[in-house]
Structure formats: structure tokens, C-alpha cells
């Protein structure tokens, strides 16, 4: 009977430790799924090491006062085109490096400023605004019907447009 007691005690301990392990596991998954809601992830996956502004107003203010161009990315979480562009944007080392020279904002909602939807409210679309707070209508993608749209295959055009936005800044101001 001594052995039986030890055995049932041992099984009880195994059962308790399994239950505890399950709880710990649950806690971890809860925390990891809740993480993206924290405010420091303003990048929304577009470049976690970059500094992103929170609002359009803040972005305009920072652009004007730092004399850096503003790059605004309009996108939606449930849009496959936005997701695909985000992936290549975030993984493109040169774009990520160059992006540090910009004031950055990515928006999942439309602003009331009609200047940000000069040819419609489609996503994804990327607009450049210079520190004089002018939307650069001369920096566009390759589609005539959606001037500020970029596909993942347009990533090199986007990179050269970013360079163009920085060059224009130097020559005009």
C-alpha cells in the first residue's frame, strides 16, 4: 500500500503540474495576441524600428519644423494589396534606411483633408508632402487611374520616388 500511495501522489503531482503548465501557456498566447494593440506599434508592421507619428496633424507639424518631407501611407489591415505592399516595404533594407530621413505616418482611416485623396480614397496609396505642407502631385506611381498606388512589384519605383522627394527638398527650399 505504501507504493500505491506514492504512485497516486506522483500522479497527482503530474496532473497538477500539467494543469499549471497549461495555464502558463494560455497566459503567453493571450499576451502575444494582445501585443499589437499597444501604442508603441504605430508602425503597424511597416518598419518597427522607424519612428512613426500618431496623427496627420502631428506629422504636418513635425515635417514643417524639422524641414523633412512627410510620407503618408494609406492602407487597410484587411486589404490584401496593402498587406503585400507592407511586406515588401518592411523587408526592403534600402527603403527602411531611406525612410529614416522622412516624417512617417501610416493611416488605416481617411482624414478629412481632401488633399490626401486627390484622385480617390483607394488603398494602398502613398503621398509625399513637403515641409511647406504641399502635397507633391509630381511624385506618383505608374498607374494613371490611381496616381499614388504602388504594387509590391513597384518597390524600386517607390524607392526612387522617396529619393526624388528628398532631392526636391534640397533644390527647392
TrEMBL record:
<keyword id="KW-0964">Secreted</keyword>
<keyword id="KW-0256">Endoplasmic reticulum</keyword>
<dbReference type="GO" id="GO:0005576">
    <property type="term" value="C:extracellular region"/>
</dbReference>
<protein>
    <recommendedName>
        <fullName>AGR2 protein</fullName>
    </recommendedName>
</protein>
<keyword id="KW-0732">Signal</keyword>
<dbReference type="Pfam" id="PF13899">
    <property type="entry name" value="Thioredoxin_7"/>
</dbReference>
<dbReference type="GO" id="GO:0005783">
    <property type="term" value="C:endoplasmic reticulum"/>
</dbReference>
<feature type="signal peptide">
    <location>
        <begin position="1"/>
        <end position="21"/>
    </location>
</feature>
<dbReference type="GO" id="GO:0002162">
    <property type="term" value="F:dystroglycan binding"/>
</dbReference>
<dbReference type="InterPro" id="IPR051099">
    <property type="entry name" value="AGR/TXD"/>
</dbReference>
<comment type="similarity">
    <text>Belongs to the AGR family.</text>
</comment>
<dbReference type="InterPro" id="IPR036249">
    <property type="entry name" value="Thioredoxin-like_sf"/>
</dbReference>
